[in-house]
Amino acid sequence: MAAEVETIVSVENLRKSFGKAVAIEDVSFQIRRGEVVGLLGANGAGKSTTIQILLGLIALTSGKISIFGMDPWKQRVAVLSRCNFSSAYVALPYNLKVIENLDVFAQLYGVNNRKKKINDLLDLFEVGHLAAKMTGGLSSGESTRVNLCKALLNDPEFLLLDEPTASLDPDIADKVRKLLAQVQAERQMTVLYTSHNMRDVQELCQRVLFLHQGKIIAEGSSQAILQQFGQETLEEVFIAIARNQVSSSLLSGDVK
Amino acid sequence: MILVRPGRVMGLCHRYFYIYTRSGFRLLDVVFWPVMDLIVWGFVAKYFMRLDSANPTAITFLIGAIIFFNILNRAQQSISVSFLEDLWSRNLLNAFVAPITVAEFVASTFVVGLTQIFAVALIMSGLAFCLYTFNILTISFALIPLFLNLLVMGWALGMFTTSLIFRFGHQAEALAWAVPFLIQPISAVFYPVSVLPDWLQPVAYLVPATYCFEGMRAVLSGHGDITSYLLTASALNLFYFLSVCLFFAAMLNNARERGALAKLVV
């Protein structure tokens, strides 16, 4: 009998409302160790709210979340020390040099042998030559790769990536995607990945969660979702959902 | 339970060190206003000294008050402006999702504030000696506990201001600079409480700084036991500081409930 794979993230009946507006409605999913899961949905579908709840920035209204078997609200520091986060929309302090920023975050994450760790990551992402450059002066591609160095400083077991390839040209996006795939495979990292770039998702994610108006309406491998929606590509599925061009039973999430 | 780990506080302090030393304007902001206060008010006091009815200790009172008020102001700003620094550099999200406690975050701003205060006090003391022959070293050590009380009150005000920014968002940013000046008129900074109208005096006596400034004048004029000032200021500070810690935690949780924290930091 195959050994049971450990569940890293467990979300049960998650609900979040802001006053009368419901942002997340009865969302449940699990992510197993080493799995890369894509969280997809149009703007306002609830992706960012879900990630921000997992990170402890937003309190949930009801439901239960467990990360590494711990309550991230009550055992925040223990959970966050094993996680990390990177977003195309969240900058590192612009008025610090790259090396200073990484050193500060290495201290915050309690990284041992900081200098070696930072240099290894800078080399891995081919940005060693930027170490002494001011972070505010980096291009989008450079900034993304430096952010990813920060996100891997503590060898996270669970990595949350919010549109890491947004605003990158196809060449840099491809490099970043390949590097992420390589690092994930080597370290067996668990990854929750949001992106509007369907190619990212098809290449990197083993499983996809489609959110629509705060509900998960589809869940499975890219191939299974294509079959379910009768489309050729994830991009077509995305557009069909965003424009309500699929049957009401699919949109309501009754068919998964 | 983890509250404050020195390594994490040092990491946060390093970040502020880089931010301040990298920007001449930031450093200027820390030093410029206290020095301007000292120069302008010092010369005003010198001018009043020439008038027949002037009290010869007036300049000492005034310079002492300026230095003490800047301690309060700097302590408050070390927390509120440091928080805004993070907000403006869009870095709060990275800090909030790092495994650091709120206590470590606040402790680092205390350390940054203390460093700034010692630097500013040193510069102002040197300037006061050069311009007005005001030698801070000749002042009684009795002023030190009053200084510490102002420091604690400044930190409490800084946490209060930051709590209001959690609650009201960017529109409350101006409070980061305004709060010490809002309470200045009732803190007996430049004049004794007895100058205030009768109905306002009880309000002034609710402010810990009032006892610090009254105590400072008693020490500088060379008479008066300041024990009662000190005890009252310490008791009020303890009460306010603990209350503000609870208020800070409540506002932070409220911001998480409303999703306002995420909006503020992203």
Q: Indicate the low-confidence ranges of chain B by residue numbers.
A: none
* SSE run of chain B: HHHHHHHHHHH
N- and C-termini, Cα separation of chain A: 28 Å
For the residues shown, what is the average pLDDT of chain B?
A: 87
Radius of gyration of chain A: 18 Å
Strand content of chain A: 15-25%
Largest interface: A-B, 39 and 35 residues
Helix content of chain B: over 70%
Distance between the termini of chain B: 29 Å
What about the largest sheet of chain B?
none
Give the overall pLDDT of chain A as a whole number. Answer: 89
Low-pLDDT residue intervals, each spanning 5 or more residues of chain A: none
Largest sheet: number of strands, sense, barrel closure of chain A: 6 strands, mixed
Structural Rg of chain B: 19 Å
Helical residue percent band of chain A: 25-40%
Alpha-beta content class of chain B: mainly alpha
Rough shape of chain A? globular
Instruction: Tell me the number of helical segments of chain A per DSSP (H or I, 4 or more residues long).
Output: 10
Work out the number of β strands of chain A: 9
Shape of chain B: globular
List the keywords.
heterodimer; A: 256 residues; alpha/beta; six-stranded mixed beta sheet; three-stranded antiparallel beta sheet; 36% helix; B: 266 residues; mainly alpha; 0% strand; globular
Walk me through the topology.
The complex is a heterodimer of chains A (256) and B (266).
Chain A: E1 7-18, E2 21-32, E3 36-40, H1 47-54, E4 62-67, H2 76-80, E5 83-87, H3 98-108, H4 114-124, H5 140-151, E6 158-162, H6 170-187, E7 190-194, H7 198-204, E8 207-212, E9 215-220, H8 222-229, H9 234-242, H10 248-251
Parallel strand pairs in A: 3-7, 3-8, 5-6, 6-7
Antiparallel strand pairs in A: 1-2, 1-4, 8-9
Chain B: H1 6-22, H2 24-50, H3 58-88, H4 92-96, H5 102-132, H6 143-168, H7 175-183, H8 201-204, H9 208-220, H10 227-258, H11 260-265
Helix pairs in contact in B: 1-5, 2-3, 2-5, 3-5, 3-6, 3-7, 3-9, 6-7, 6-9, 6-10, 9-10
